[in-house]
Specification:
The chain is of the alpha+beta class and 148 residues long. It has 2 helices and 8 strands, in the order αββαββββββ. The longest helix has 22 residues.
Length: 148
């Protein structure tokens, strides 16, 4: 049976994962400061993106996502494992994206998993490592090139 602390930790981690999606979809890069630890490493390379520190990734996201007119990051239920002040989460992501192709909107889909390491801090749970594990791209434009 889960303790009250376990339930609280899981709810806080789930809220954090949702906050990430909201920050990305609203292009609020500074909101990521309340989601990741200051020393976080974020790795999007398997899905064609960059790997780096939080400040580096915020710059990357601003540049790479500028070419998209829309996107939605939709999480499935995460698998969360908590061990004291450390945790891991594996969360499925479905991400439709819209990009201009020859003057018309082109929708494609990205499927991946977020593999996270989390740490309890004095400000609550934060992601200390995020790795995107690619699953599929569907209807990807032929000319698409990821920014790195």
């Amino acid at each position: 049976m889960l303790s009250h602390q376990d339930l609280s930790d899981r709810a806080e981690i789930q809220d954090l994962l949702v906050a990430y999606c909201e920050a990305i979809d609203s292009r609020d890069w500074d909101a990521l400061d309340d989601i990741f630890t200051k020393d976080a490493i974020i790795d999007y390379t398997e899905a064609g993106g960059a790997r780096g520190s939080l400040p580096e990734i915020k710059l990357y996201l601003d540049k790479a996502l500028a070419k998209f007119s829309g996107f939605q990051h939709m999480n499935g239920l995460p698998q969360i494992k908590i061990n004291g002040d450390q945790a891991t989460a594996r969360t499925i992501l479905f991400n439709p994206m819209i990009i201009d192709q020859n003057g018309a909107p082109h929708v494609f889909f990205v499927g991946l998993w977020y593999k996270d390491k989390l740490r309890r801090t004095e400000d609550g749970w934060r992601i200390s490592e995020r790795y995107e594990e690619a699953s599929y791209f569907y209807n990807l434009p032929d000319s698409f090139k990821a920014e790195s």
